[in-house]
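One such given next:
>
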Amino acid sequence: MLDIITIGSATIDTFITTDVKTLKIKTKKDNQEYIALPYGSKILINKLQHHTGGGGTNTAVTFAKAGLKTGFLGSIGKDHDGREIQSELRKKNIKFLGTIHGTTGHSTILDVDQDRTILTYKGCNDKIPLEFKKAKKLRAKWFYIASVTEKMFSLTKEIIKFPKNNKTKICFNPSSYIARKGLKYIHTILKNTYCLILNDEEAELLTGHNEIKENLKTLSKNIIFDGIVVITAGKKNAYAYDSRKIYSLKPKEDIKIKETTGAGDAFASGFVLGLIKKQSIPICMKMGMINSEHTIQHLGAKEGLLGNNLLHLASLDKRIVK
């Protein structure tokens, strides 16, 4: 039996750096930053790099680096990009459990002022990677459900119906696309979820509230009794709630950010790794934060991911989890 199976997307990420500047345009509701491109012009690219990405494979790398028997369930294209992803999974000792078909998903990341705008082509990530009968036979001690599309979500609901019988624990990181559909839509998975991890925007989409501590308590009522809810807020604090206490941890302010893509996956997989290793919530939060902070110092969602040494680094971290 595998220690953990991640379910989600696999992509090729193209990182583009230009001299594009941001403009602040005031709307009726709030201030929103837009990337401005001269209409009809040819924009010179200063730097162009390709890396593998996708929530399913990003998180799988953290678990595999920690020595866990890791599987990835998703769709990989029958093309050059797909072969590159397959090769990386083999090198990382991650068992591919899905299907090879169609065109590999692709993301183009426009880097601007230490932040980014992502253009995403879902490709075969919109396809079901395994027949329902075969999917229901998958077995692991843990399942990590990364951002999935509607078809993958339907398959995932079938997969998680069996965990009550074999004590498998479910961790769920809903995408903003799924979160927009509301709590009722994802109830089937939530009622079996042990650890719900999402960012503040996704939490607000689910609950309709914008107060993090209120959302922690609301979402906690929708998962299993002894479950944990984690909400991240970018450069602000990360929060966790176990139905008894709210914990918070502040990111380091002196990190030299190179690229933020994959930061959420890094935090989530680091936190879940702590749970798998039966650590306290404060240590889990430090493991997630350290993994995320290390990742954003590199270009590419997988380049800075840690594994075996995360627990040791968390034990040395002097930050106080309040």
